[in-house]
Fold these 3 entries.
Entry 1:
Amino acid sequence: MGKNQQITNIIVLILSTIFCVVDIFFYVFLFDVATWLYVCLLVLNSLLIVLCFVFFFLHKISLLRTLFVISTCVFVFSLGYQIFVWLGYKDVFSSVDSLKQFIQSTGVWGIAVFFLIQFLQVVILPIPGAITTIAGAIIFGPTTAMFVSLGAVLLGSFVAFFIGRYLGEKVVIWIVGKETCEKYSKMLYEKGKY
């Protein structure tokens, strides 16, 4: 293993550990979640930290990089949630009425906010689609809500596709290596119809 490769692996280990420690800080001091979820999140992040060190010392680089991607995704989601809470939007998606009040409070920007919520539902955020769709139908009427939702979901799907198309392969190659990726891609293309 080259020196640059070793430095990259050390950076991946350090960043994974930092992301997990920050997530644990979020769970312990900032998040207000149910006790069982709190325990699950702490155990998950502690396990990620331990596994990162184990895979690093066992030279299981593809597993270490997989855990890095997982810990990065968990960190980004936790950070996004925390920003959402700090801005005071924690309870906006808890019910149709609260979402309806939020969208109506934005005034003339309501339809743009509804479009953005529907778009983010596809691309990033785990927002419950039933709540947003019902709230939109109540506020704007079923026809307008349907067209706005359709446009936002289609645009979100295109963005998600292009993210996967242009970043997905690079991430997979980075995790498993170019030769392994090409080997399995070849197998899929040759035997994919079966």
Entry 2:
Amino acid sequence: MLAADERIRVFWAPGCTSCLRVKEFLTRLEIDYESVNAASSAEHVEEMARLGARSVPIVSRGDAFVYAQSLADVASFLGLEVEVDRQLSPHELVRRVNIILPAGQRYIKQIPDDVLDVRFRNSVRLLRGIAHHVFRIVEAFVEAMETGVELSNELIMDATEAVRPGDDVLTYGSAVLAEFNAWWVRYPDKSCQAQMDTYFGRQSVHDVLERTTWHSAQHVRQLLLVLDTLGIAPDSPLTREDLAGLPLPEKVWEG
């Protein structure tokens, strides 16, 4: 049982994939927590800053917090004994990236330009930025692997907020997929057991590759939701088999 003297709080933002996943995780385990939309007020951002957190999602308790990108880290932080689902192999994750990124390109082609330049639902960024982010997630992973720098939130978000109408996101996506596949051919440890530095702690390359894959996949699911909202039939929608085994949230969007 969890001690009752300190509140468990989840700081999140609309459209954030890891935010939705950790909230579903705690709800599934019937863990009582306070849901804090960090995008709803400057006060919540200041609270995170006081804790020392640079980005969402985080799970906090008193003056301590953990980044919630890894559910295993959240479970450890809260003293929970839970079984972690078996991961797809690195080879299979690479295969899935080669399904997910082209799917994102197909759906971006179908979304009218004027729609790409607005915010979808309660998103904190333009839809064009979300489209760019599908590929930037993968590109940042490759950059971290190739240079040895920390996979920081700033690295993952680089250029996402700056993308503008007219930027060629589709060509960019093709270049990212080519870079990713070239990295995989060169990378010697196909078991991906080496450790790498991330803003949410030291993680195995396998764990970060898994996160990279499902993170991009979740944003592609959001593009599918946009098409559905517009009444546009998607060009070759992702199937259950395409997504099977990835630790995705149940929902596509919150709010």
Entry 3:
Amino acid sequence: MARKKNVIPSYLLHKKSGQARVRLNGREHLLGPYGSEQSRIRYGELVAKFASGVPIAPLAAGSNRGPNRGTDSNDPGPSIAELIVAFLSHAETHYVKNGEPTSEQHCIRSAVRPLRELYGLTPAKDFGPLALKAVRSKLVESGLARNTVNSFVGKIRRLFRFGVANEIVPVEVLSRLESVSPLLAGRTEAPDLPPRTAVAQEKIDAVKEFVSSLVCDVIGLQLLTGARSGELLGLTTSTIDRSGEVWFAKLGNHKCQHKGKSRTLHFGPKAQLILSKYLLADPDKTLFKITRTAYCRSITRACDKAGIDRWTPHWMRHTAATRVREQRGIESTQALLGHSAIDMTEHYSSKMDKLATSTAAACG
């Protein structure tokens, strides 16, 4: 005889945090210390809402939601684990582009993981600068680069900023956390990754020996256009206007789309020769049958096979910028890369020492 389905969600133990939990509509809700009266009350509130078809907020505290959520002086307010659940629920709908989750969702989950492990049961209102520094130390111990650690700490502050904006934690909590300064180069054990620079032509040639012809062609297009790999790999036949001497593609999906900026790729004669091999009868299918992850992985693996330091597709954007600036100046570089500010173009177009040396040898 088939076992009857339990129509009332169970009151369960979340072993990792020691909190009580209940699963409703596929989502876990933390209720407070397992076995406590507080957790039993919240459990009853949630189950009652669930049975009545009332939508349940990620921070499941009923009418007691917010930094002053109850008159009981023994109620410490929402825990950090509860705040994380609420923020991740927000991130799942906010950090989305064209119906797909962005990489920011993954970054946020990675950033809050040590926070939850160390302070999940701590009331959010009691989290302060020293606790944030302890989480930062945990990130440094994991081997992350200094810039990544600073970025993750910024995401943790964003978590508490979300809490303030939604009246989950008092504003004073965020003010205290903003007093923590970022890690400085040379004053921390966190390593600094080498800066992205232009890739020397001999390293590009070395990689081409170990990749497919498709990857070679995408590499060629990046060098000719200065485009990001994702911009090229999203191209379809219909997005490319071939009516003029220079082809162009106005992108509807790009990095700065959410800021209201436009992005157009331009293809000269050399780039057109490459693209012509991939134009399809179906105007809406992508030209290049490879993902960004697979494209990047093919290059890094080829670097290993060639016995050279690893570089990634984005480094070729620096290479393209350097070449164009040498030939046509910074304004042409700015237009090619789609930058709205000259200082960003300066960042992408630093000169290579080898190029300067060879030019001086040939011309000077």
